[in-house]
Amino acid sequence: MIKNLTKTTLLFFSMLTFLSSLAQAQIPQVPKEIRFADLTLKLNEQARREIQLDVDALHRNQNYFKTKLDRVNLYMPFVERELQAAGVPLDLKYLVIQESSLIADAVSTSNAVGFWQFKKGTAEEVFLRVDNLIDERKNIVSSTKGAALYLKKNNSQFDNWMCGLVAYQMGLGGAKAYFGTQYNGKKVVELDRNTHWYFKKFLAHKIAFEGQIGRLVSNTGYLEVVSVQGPTTLKAVAARLQVTENHLREYNKWTSNGQIPGDKTYAVVYLKSGAAPSRPVIASNSTATTSSTTTAQTTRYSQSQPGNYPKVTGNTQRATQPDQIKVNNIEAVQASQATSQENFADQIGIRKGKLRRVNDLNRKDNIQAGAYYYTKAKNSSADAEIHIVRQGETLWSISQLYGIKLSSLKAKNRIRSDRNLVPGMVLNLLEHRKRGEDITILPLNQQRQLGIQQPSTTPTSPITVTPTSAPDPIPVASNPESSSQRLTHTVAQGENLFRISQRYGVKVDDIKKWNNLSNDNIRVGQKLIIIKP
C-alpha cells in the first residue's frame, strides 16, 4: 500500500514538473539582440533578465493573457493601419497594449484616458476633441492618429525611436534632459541596467505579444469601422448597420450620450460575427522567392505607400505657424483647427485667393484641422512615380498628398472627375499617360501584399481601364421618367446622404448609384448628381 502511494506521489510530482517546464517553454524568451523599428538593440545579461521577468509576468495568468489577446486582435488592425499611414514603424503598435491593454475607457492615476492614455492637454495638441460630449481618446481610430502624430513629432527631435518612445512617457522636455544627444541618429543601441524602465517594459510587451497577434483565441468575431458625418446619433447608425444601439454604445464610448456632431467625420466601430477577412501582409520576415518581374513591380508600387507622403520637414513643433515647415519641399502650414478659408488666410498672412489657388480649393471648402496647406505653388510633378488609389480618396486629396497641381494630376492620367477613380487604380505622378494606354488596377491580393486595405468589392484579378478624351458620362437613374430633372448638389457642412435624400425626395441607394459611391462617405464641397423625379 505504501509502495503504491509512493509511486502515485512520484507520478504526481513528475506531472507537475512536466507541466511547469511545458508552460516555461511556451513563454517567449528574450534574445540578446532585438530589432526594433530601424534600431538594433544589444542587451547585456542584466537587461535581458529584467525584461524576461516582465515577459514572464505577462504570461503568468494565461486566462488573463488570452482575454487581453482577444482585445488586441480586435483592435490591432486599426492601430496598424493608422501607424502605417502616418509613417510610424509598426513596432510602435505594442505601446498601446502597454498603455491601456486596449481598454477604451481606461483611466490612469494621473488622469490619462483612453487607448493611448492621453491627458486632456496633450490630446488637444494632436487635434483630438475632448469635452462633455465627445472624448476621442476613447476612439481607436482618432486616438491612434493622435498617438502617431505625437510619436513622430518626438522622434523628429532625436532621430531615434527609443528616445521618441520614452518621450511619450516623460514628455519631450524630460526626454531631452534625460538622454541629451547621446543617441541622436544612432542605429545600434546597447541596453543595460541603466536603460530607461519604460523602454524595457515596452520591449517586454513586444516580445510577449509579437508571436501571438492574429492567433485565434476565441470566436469573438471582428471589428468593422464606418466613417460617419453628423449630426446624427448612434441609434440612427445602428439601424443602418442592423445592430442594436447598445451594441454601438459598447464599442463607441467616445460619445457620451450617443450623439455624433457635425464638426467632422467620426469613426464608428461595431462587431461582426464570423472570421475576419484576410488582413494585409503589413510586415513579414519571410524571404519567399518571387520572379524578377513581380519583384520589380513590388518595388515600384511600394513607393506609393501612404506613410511615405506627405514629406514634412522643418520645425514640425511649430507647424501651425507660417514659415516653419515644408511639405514635399514646398512651403506650407498645418491648420490647428477647423475654420473658414478667410480666417485661415488671415492667420497665416496670405491672401485668400492665393490660398485657394495654390491648394486647388473650391470657394466653399472649409479648412480641416490637422491638414497641411501649401503657401507656395505646388509642382507639376511629384517625387514619387505612381500612386495606388485607396478607398475614399479624391483627386484633390491625392494632389495635396504629393504636392502636385490638381490640373497636372488630371492631365497626366487623362482623368477628369473623382467618379473615374477606382480603388487599386495606379495613377501616374511623373509622366503623362499615353493616349489610349490602359490604366492598371491592381488585384486585391497584390494590394494586400503592399499593405493596402480596400473594400471587398475591389477586383481580385488584374483589370484595366481604357481612358478616353470624351466627356464623362452622365449617370442616370435605372428607370428615369422622361420629366426627370438632373441637378448638382454641393455637400454642405453637417450633411450626410440620408439628409440629402430627404431634401430631394430620392433614395440614398440611388444617390450612391448616380455618383458611383461605394459607401456613405462624402465630404464638404463634394459635387453630387441628383436626378429628381
Give structural notes.
This protein has 533 residues and is an alpha+beta fold. Helices cover 39% and strands 13% of the residues. It has a 4-stranded antiparallel beta sheet with strand order 8-9-10-11, with no helix packed on it. Strands 1-2-3 form a 3-stranded mixed beta sheet. Strands 4-7 form a two-stranded antiparallel sheet. Strand 9 and strand 10 (330-334) form a beta hairpin. Helix 6 (140-158) packs across helix 7 (161-170) and helix 7 (161-170) crosses helix 8 (172-179).
Distance, first to last CA: 95 Å
Instruction: Summarize the amount of helix as a percent range.
Output: 25-40%
Q: Hey, roughly how much beta strand do the residues contain?
A: 5-15%
Described by the principal axes of the CA atoms, the overall outline is: globular
The parts where pLDDT drops under 50 for at least 5 residues are: 16-25, 278-300, 455-483
Structural class: alpha+beta
Biggest sheet: strand arrangement? 8-9-10-11
What does the largest sheet look like? 4 strands, antiparallel
Radius of gyration, taken over Cα atoms and rounded to an integer in Å: 26 Å
Mean pLDDT: 80
Count the beta strands.
Answer: 17
How many helices does DSSP assign?
A: 19
Characteristic terms for this protein:
globular; 533 residues; 13% strand; four-stranded antiparallel beta sheet; three-stranded mixed beta sheet; 39% helix; alpha+beta
Can I get a quick summary?
The chain is α+β, with helices and mostly antiparallel strands and 533 residues long.
Task: Give the helices and strands, then pairings.
Elements: H1 2-26, E1 33-36, E2 39-43, H2 45-60, H3 62-86, H4 94-100, H5 120-125, H6 140-158, H7 161-170, H8 172-179, E3 188-191, H9 197-209, E4 222-229, E5 232-233, H10 234-241, H11 245-251, E6 259-260, E7 265-272, H12 292-302, E8 312-314, E9 325-327, E10 330-334, H13 341-348, H14 352-358, E11 372-374, E12 386-388, H15 395-402, H16 406-413, E13 426-428, E14 439-441, H17 444-449, E15 463-465, E16 485-490, H18 497-504, H19 508-514, E17 527-532
Parallel strand pairs: 2-3
Antiparallel strand pairs: 1-2, 4-7, 5-6, 8-9, 9-10, 10-11, 12-13, 14-15, 16-17
Helix pairs in contact: 2-9, 3-6, 4-9, 6-7, 7-8, 10-11
